[in-house]
Write a structure and sequence with these properties.
There is one protein chain. With 234 residues, this protein is an alpha+beta fold. 36% of the residues lie in helices and 20% in strands. It is built from seven helices and eight strands, in the order βαβααααββααββββ. Strands 1-2-5-3-4 form a five-stranded antiparallel β-sheet. A three-stranded antiparallel β-sheet has the order 6-7-8, with no helix packed on it. Helix 4 packs antiparallel against helix 6 and helix 5 crosses helix 6. The protein is globular and about 55 Å long. The protein starts with a strand and ends with a strand. 29% of the residues are buried.
Length: 234
């Protein structure tokens, strides 16, 4: 049986290209024993194989080629149709069972009875390129519970590759649609007191004398507070 799910701490460097940008980073820090919430990745093999099994790949590519990028008159309607096709497609039984088994193992490892709340996070293979950042382009879902809900939200993550903003962003950065693959991170939810992100330069102008922090109470699902901190080297 082909393995479509890899736990972070069981992944090797040879696996990282199948985990997307976010998944590979989580695998690296987990293997290095940093305190990362436990989880696994549904590999890019799953996305590639489900498109092959359903015969959807050529049809999806043809629809994207038909988008009017001059007036964008049909972008939203094609985007909605693409996402609906991805969400409605049936996973091969072997693949679905493989992913459900990994979720069951995740429940067991965290002492839950098949009801562990997880975050379902998109992890495309084109994330964090030198000339492009896909932050926020694809979707994340929080507090997903149960194996059937996990399968449903994996397909939602795959479908988010084809939002209008993601399609346009790839075109603007000359990233070929045929090369895009999606891994999906399945990760134990944490009850966060606060959440945020810090950047060691100002992303607006590249100023390395500043640290930019955006943070909020809770899970970070609201507009965050913004801090610009002057960095002083020791």
């Amino acid at each position: 049986m082909k393995k479509y799910a890899l736990f972070f701490n069981e992944s090797t460097p040879a696996d990282y290209d199948k985990l997307g940008g976010k998944g590979a980073s989580l695998a690296r820090v987990s293997v290095a024993k940093f305190p990362v919430p436990i989880g696994f990745c549904v590999t890019t093999d799953a996305y590639r194989d489900v498109l092959a099994a359903t015969g959807l790949k050529n049809a999806l590519m043809a629809q994207i080629q038909s988008i009017d990028y001059q007036g964008f008159s049909n972008l939203d309607s094609i985007s909605a149709d693409l996402r609906n096709q991805i969400f409605q497609m049936a996973m091969p039984v072997e693949m679905e069972n493989n992913i459900k088994k990994a979720y069951q193992q995740l429940c067991e490892r965290t002492n839950h009875n098949d009801d562990l709340p997880v975050a379902i996070r998109s992890s495309a293979n084109a994330e964090d390129m030198p000339n492009a950042s896909f932050a926020g382009q694809q979707d994340t879902y929080l507090w997903v519970v149960g194996e059937n809900a996990v399968i449903e939200h994996i397909k939602k993550c795959w479908a988010s590759l084809f939002t209008s903003r993601a399609i346009t962003y790839r075109r603007d950065h000359n990233i070929g649609e045929e090369h895009i693959l999606m891994s999906v991170v399945i990760q134990k939810m944490v009850n966060a007191k606060a959440a945020g992100v810090a950047m060691t330069l100002n992303p607006i102008n590249g100023d390395r004398s500043k640290i930019v922090i955006d943070a909020s109470w809770g899970l970070g699902e609201v507009t965050p507070d913004h801090f610009l901190v002057e960095f002083q080297s020791l």
